[in-house]
Amino acid sequence: MSLKHDLKNIVVNEEVSGPFISLFLPLYPSKDNFKFDDTEFNSLLSKAKKQFIAKYGEKNWSKYEKKIKATQNDIIFDYAQSKSLAIIISNETAYHYYLPRKVDLQVRVADKPYILPIIRGYEYMPSYNIAKITRSSFEMFTVKNGLVSQMNLSDDAPVSAEQALNIDTPDQKIRMEQRGGGSYDQFRGTDVKAEAEQANMDQYFRMVDEYITKHISLKDHLKVVLMATEDDAGEFKKLSHNHFLDKEDTLTMPAVINHETLEKATAKITKRFIDESREKIEDAIDLAHSKKRYLEGMKDVQAAAKEGRLDTTVIAHELAINETETDEQVQANEIAIDTLVYGGQVDLVDPAVINDQSIVGILRGI
């Protein structure tokens, strides 16, 4: 995970100061459970108060409490997409994040924000674009860290074939073509409508491909996955000149488009991208070994992080999901923050990938 959105302000901005209250709240798929979420939220608030007063006294608690309660007004419990909610309160402001993976209910009060569960929530979750295409229209959806939303397109987007091509429905009459010669003539029926539809489809698909390439792909450099029928996907891929178009998979088009059906439709491709990301970090670890850029030992990794020498910090999953605060977990969290501050990335892996170590570092190349 690299720096994302205003998480950068939390770990980099010197004007954002502690103490920090970090709350993590799992969300549930049924809106009938809203009251239960509210109960959990209030429970975390009580725990936060207890921890805050024990560490910092009662003087500033009321200010933090007001920020936490005010944050509730900004929270949208989007059960269809988000699996968890992270809230980080600083001395100056409040931030909240919708996480695509479920994290445990917990709260931490400390001099620095507790970001390991946020990293866990986003870990390996891919970002890519979805082009929902038919022969008559197209829409775009974006997947950011595993969360799907509809993309707003510019006014000149060819969202409708009829408007983009400025055509009427082709004449359905059959034209007879005469061929042959000599002692006989051969006649073949030509379906004018079928020919016109094929030509229009090709032209429309080229227009859509050009728009996606120019206005989206060349700007965000994300993969584009088609959501279309098998035939339409095949035709579009043959015509496309977009190097970001994923040629491997096509998403099945749901009968009804909503967050729930989109999540189900993207499950397979999301898993593929997650697996690819896991393989990349494992390959990076192997390469670091061979290039002598692999660093073990909490003390050595921590020193390298503070000096900005780490390209990547790799942490065992257990440190990010353990609800009980330990010295090792606090150190890992600080190393993650320092790594992000210097522009590095933080990844979580199965301990077996890093020889059952709790944390390792990959040094920057020379």
Automatic annotation (TrEMBL):
**Bacterial archaeo-eukaryotic release factor family domain sequence ranges:** 128-271
InterPro entries for the chain:
BaeRF_family6
This one is known as Bacterial archaeo-eukaryotic release factor family 6 domain-containing protein
Q: Which organism is it from?
A: Ligilactobacillus aviarius
